[in-house]
Every structure is written in structure tokens, then in C-alpha cells.
Amino acid sequence: MGKGKAKAKQAKGQLKETAGRAANDKRLEAEGRAEKVAGKAQEAVAKAKKDLGG
């Protein structure tokens, strides 16, 4: 997964987290938080691959 898709996943997670907080929906908020973390991890992997020339 590329860096752009990882950033998009982080943004989607942020939206879900914010919507969950606004609606007092703890499940949606947690889902958004998890998606943000997954996006950050994917971004780190993409950066590491780029740094290693892969």
C-alpha cells in the first residue's frame, strides 16, 4: 500500500472517530481510532520500503 492510501486511511479514521465522538458512539469512535493507527503503520512501512530502495 502506498503512502497516499495510508494517508487516506488515516483521514477516514479521523472522520469516523470524530463522528463517533459527536454521536456518543463508542464503537464507531474506537473503529476510527484503530483505522488511524493502521494507516500510520502502513505509512511507516511505505516510508521504510522507499528508504530501503524497494
Q: Describe it for me?
A:
The structure is a single chain. Helices cover 85% and strands 0% of the residues. The chain has 54 residues and is an all-alpha fold. The longest helix is centred in the C-terminal third of the chain and has 26 residues, at 26-51.
Strand and helix map with partners:
Blueprint: H1 3-22, H2 26-51
Helix pairs in contact: 1-2
Helix proportion of residues, in percent? over 70%
Q: Please report the number of helical segments.
A: 2
Intertermini distance: 12 Å
State Rg. Answer: 13 Å
Topology as a string of helices (H) and strands (E) = HH
| Structural class computed from helices and strand pairing | mainly alpha
Q: What amount of the residues lies in strands?
A: under 5%
What is the number of strand segments?
Answer: 0
**Sheet having the most strands:** none
Q: Which regions contain 5 or more consecutive residues with pLDDT less than 50?
A: none
| Overall mean confidence score, pLDDT | 93
- Shape descriptor: elongated
Give a short overview:
The protein has 54 residues and is mostly helical. It has helices at residues 3-22, 26-51.
Comma- or semicolon-separated keywords:
single chain; 54 residues; mainly alpha; 85% helix
